[in-house]
Amino acid sequence: RELLAVADVLTPNETEIAALLALHSSERIDPAAVAGTDDEQLHHLCRTLLPRSTVVVTLGAAGAFVSHREDKCRGDEHAFYRVPAEDAQVVDTTGAGDAFNGALAASVARGGEGGFIAHVRFASLYAARSTEQPGAAEAMPRLPRQPEV
Question: Can you give the pTM of this predicted structure?
Answer without folding.
Answer: 0.91
